Amino acid sequence: VLGDQRPRQRNRQFHRTTWMTSPKDSWPRFSRPGISMTLLETKDGIHYFTFEHSREYQQVQFKFLDAVESMDPNNIVALLQLNPYHIDSLLQLSDVCRIQEDQEMARDLIERALYSFECAFHPLFSLTSGTSRLDYLRPENRAFYLALYKHMMFLEKRGCPRTALEYCKLILSTNLLSQELFVFAFQEHRNLSQLPNFAFSTALCYFHLSQQENIDPEESHKQRHKADELLQIALIMFPAVLMPLLDLCTVQPDAAVTSHSFFGPNSQIRQLPALAELTGLYVGRTYTLWREAAVMLWLEETVKEVLRRVDAKDPVVEDCQNKRKQRYQSAPRNIHRHVLLSEIKEATSTLPLEVTTQPVMGFDPLPPLDSVMSYTRPERQRVGASNESTLSLFFRSLLPNFNIQVMARAGQELNQEVNRLMVAMRDMLANIRFQEPPREDNPYRDDDEWD
Fold first, then answer.
1. Strands, DSSP E only, in 116-217?
2. Which InterPro entries does the UniProt entry name for this protein (predicted)?
3. Ramachandran quadrant class, 182 (left: phi over 0; alpha: psi -120 to 50; beta: rest)
4. How many CA atoms lie less than 13 Å away from 146 in the CB half-sphere?
């Protein structure tokens, strides 16, 4: 009887208890992919960790980079069949699935990447204590942040904003001392108002506080007055926010507003590119919060008051104009990266040419220029150089016959080419078959690490 039970016990999978995601029965059998976490140092109660790649994993990583350079996604699929928990392959293929609008598959691949990471956590690494750090400058750590970010965005799209917020807090807490992941490091609280998202959101919060039913009338009036003041300053400081916001809210502004130089087309033309990125991010993310009738009425009244102050040559208007010119000369690389990851068209359309004309890889978009490299890829013979854009390279990776020059001369055939692209991607994803990795000689080894 014991002999009959032994094969079934050998086929049983032991899953480690995880916090970020739970393993699924449909996933390939988990085998350590070659990722580990090391404690670098402990200073002032803060633990500094880093992920490390084994020599075998480094070889897989080199093959992945070869597959990316081949511009044939089938090579990535083949690599993932042999290494079903290779992180960068999971991230890259997730992007392909998402573009194809297969959200379930895209989300599943990200969850598998997070599971692989969590199984490699150091015993002292904590997701909740706020005392664990991972340096974004190290390439091995960046994939963890990208997986967290993409998982957070999937949660938000599924209507789980509170859970998404917790993942946002996790991203910030593990990279608190670095500015490399979309975050400005402001030393004083008052400096937060220099960002359009904080300026407008703070005003909106005070407005909603004033609208609470159980609030004292005097307190309500006080909160509303504060909201009016903050929104006026926000509109004076960032006038280019108004028209895109109204456009997304499908609200036609008054002729007096559109014809005025302060809020009219000139406000968009005069806006510095760096500020345009921040404005696009805020408008694209939060316009739904401004659609409410009461909020829109409040905004309309405040805009009229702002125009009155502008026409009266209020010194605050000139002061804010000078601040805009001084503070938003150029956006740092981490802001460009965040705009790319956000995929908010209002923001991506404002990216400078030095960003849009360079290749951007989904598994490591715009890596920091001062990255800390623990190992390097062996030099390879590069055959030919290409001046094609990232988009044309992506199309050609899926359609080898795609030619950007031909497409430029035959714009009317673009829709047909895109349809061919979608068909190719569907065929590719339909044929994905993950093979089981070879079982270890001793299936009961390390049982104490699994639940």
1. 132-134
2. TCF25/Rqc1
3. left
4. 27
- What's the whole-number mean pLDDT along residues 150-162? 93
Q: Which of 369, 409, 403 is nearest to 386 (CA)?
A: 403
Cβ(316)–Cβ(379) below 8 Å? no
Structure-token match 């047909």, residue found: 416
Q: How far apart are CA 256 and CA 311, in angstroms?
A: 12
Every domain of the chain and the residues it spans: 2-180+436-449, 190-348
Q: Which pLDDT score is estimated for 104?
A: 94
Express as a percent the part of the chain with pLDDT over 90.
56
Question: Tokens representing 227?
Answer: 């909201």
Could you tell me if 147 and 87 are in contact, meaning their C-beta atoms sit under 8 angstroms apart?
yes
Cα 98 from Cα 91, distance rounded (Å): 11
Which helix (H) or strand (E) segment holds residue 3: the answer is helix 2-11
CATH class for domain 2-180+436-449? Answer: mainly alpha
pLDDT for the residue numbered 175:
81
Distance between CA atoms of residues 187 and 191, nearest Å: 8
For residue 177, what are the contacts with CB-CB under 8 A and spacing of at least 6? 133
Distance CA 217, CA 222 (A): 9
CB 68 within 8 A of CB 92: yes
Contacts of 139 (CB under 8 A, 6+ apart): 364, 367, 371, 373, 374
Nearest to 324 by CA among 240, 223, 205: 240
Segment 7-28 shows an average pLDDT of 71
Token reading at 173: 């807490």
Query: Which of 224, 220, 219, 229 has the alpha carbon at shortest distance from 207?
Result: 224
More confident residue, 137 or 177: 137
Query: Is 436:29 a contact under the CB 8 Å cutoff?
Result: yes
Per-residue DSSP letter, 287: G
- Give me the residue label for tokens 């975050």: 183
Reported as a single tens digit per residue, the pLDDT across 389-448 is: 445 555 544 444 444 444 444 444 444 444 444 445 545 544 554 444 444 444 434 444
